[in-house]
Amino acid sequence: MENFSELKLNESLKHSIDRMQFKVPTPIQSKAIPPALLGKDILGTAQTGTGKTLCYGIACINKLLTDKSSGALIICPTRELAVQVGEVLVGLIESQMNIKCAVLIGGESMQKQLKQLSRRPRLIIGTPGRLNDHLQRKSLKLHQTYFLVLDETDRMLDMGFTPQIEQILKFIPKKHQTLLFSATLPQNIIRISERYLNEPVRIQVGSTTTPISKIKQEIIQVNEVEKYNKLLDQLYKREGSILIFIKTKHGADKMVERLRRDGHKCDGMHGNLRQSKRQRSLIAFRSGKIRILVSTELAARGLDVPSIQHVINYHLPQVPEDFIHRIGRTARAGAEGSALTFITPNDRQMWNEIQRLINPNAKQEFNTYKKSNHKGKKRFSRFRQRGGSENKSSKENYFNHSKDYDQKGKKKFGYKSDRFNNDQSREKKKFGYKSDRFNNDQSREKKKFG
Known about the structure:
alpha/beta; Rossmann fold; 18 helices
């Protein structure tokens, strides 16, 4: 498929695609849309930023147009991704199609969502937690859901949503079409596909462990003390919008405060913020009101902000695969971008793991680095001076010094033999020890400790 016009789509959907000026499909779209239109299950993997949303969006809306009694459910890992998917699909839906949509995510008013559901929408987009909330309330009905999409499935499993997803699938008819998309394909994804997909068409476009070729990657080796000043230097040198990844939520807040004090327009985004605040920050970043967005891993998956020129990894991710997703926020839809990573000596192991993931045959950059044990060296040299014997080894001097220390310790704390015996006698009287029993205990202790 070289053009969207070749697809056998509903005429109103074709008109909508032309209106949005989608002409040439991406590789994942050209391979996945035709079998999806035939009703086949899809197991698709592709790099981030390759157009997976439009891929399942076109198949989904065409299904709803051809089967008026059918409903569709799209499950996303994060609230931001669910909102973004909703915006793309609502853009494809025209008024004459008569398809209502509801976005069900946590952090937003339940009353507002109940009002949306009262209109009987046929297209539901949501996160696993809030979808389960509505199922328990019986405000959401999925008995006519014949089209299911699991988007960013690997991310959902990493976030621990497996029980929620399995609970949701119990409410969906057994005979339905499933499209499962994932940026990576670990064993747990394969197990889920074997369990829930029916003879799926396997589609893979490009390497899931290789960054997009149009991303210019740079690294700066630095220690923790100089790290923030080096970041400021890079922010002044670079033009355009910048996404900075920080390891923790608290760290993201602190970074926003520091950057604002240094005169930068920035905002933060992480899981502890209210959904309305997160959405405002994202909208401000997309519109250019702020130049810098500081985020945790929350922004690493699925977010489509075409204007991101630079991604900066201030901290490395906890999992090597997340590095690919992070830098995939730039150079989207054929554009160019850059990714800068700060590496400290403590990042040696994780950076080598990331390099092995991207290029298993590459030479590891930090294999020769070893932490020096300066404290140990100083300690042994100090013992050598005190021992006064240049011919003895450091180890012998260490043990001799330890013995001396024990003797000095006894003298320091007054453990003279007479005083110690007097203390013993007082202890005997105090606790009523009989002399023989006490002496036997003593002898046993002597034998025990030599």
